[in-house]
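Weekly structure sync, notes
Attendees: PL, DS, HV (note-taker this week)

Item 1: Phosphoglycolate phosphatase
DS walked through the input record. Source organism listed as Thiosulfatimonas sediminis. Sequence as pasted into the shared doc:
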Amino acid sequence: MNPATSNTLQCILFDLDGTLLDTSYDFAFAMAETCRHFDQPIVTYQDLRSVVSQGGLAMTQRAFPTLSGAALEQRRLYFLDRYFENIAQHTQLFPGLQAGLEHLADKQIPWGIVTNKPGWLTEKLLGYFTFPSAPKTVISGDTLAVRKPHPEPMWLAAQECQIAPEHCLYLGDHPRDIEAGINAKMQTGAALFGYLPEGSTSADWPADWLFHTPFEISRFIKQHF
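Item 1 (cont.): predicted structure, written out as tokens:
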């Protein structure tokens, strides 16, 4: 951890899947439905979980490793349709984050979401959730022409929160998230409880802080905001 910089924090930004919300079970359900439809063995939950943060194409490739081109795209679109239809059956706020979000609301600290999830999925999913205070910004993967790890989505989020990037903390569960935060000159925290890529370790994350559980994030928020 880097306590020398924590006193400058005025805003917190979350990645969505694997950091703020545990969406993995709804993805797993949608992929199981897709595998059944195309007569493919169902990919295990753990195999799928490790690629959730890489997006729909990566998950489809994991389930259909021998396919490419139009056949793979057909299955990806079917998978996303099944996910859209069942987007909040099992998804929940990661246990332990509620206390941190309540603290942000009590202190009127701005917070937001920066995700590579496309807007049509992000908007529907967030419609099922009521947080202690509403996010000041929600930046999806198609809000701009570029997405993480490019810094522009991060800068837009900071602008909408009316906080300079260097006073923002960005939390994510993929090295790309930490890269995005660094590129935007933000402080960064790795959500090591999320959908980490296979084989990754804490040594792969040049983040300012490492969080092994959501409870650690809430404790950090209470101490530094």
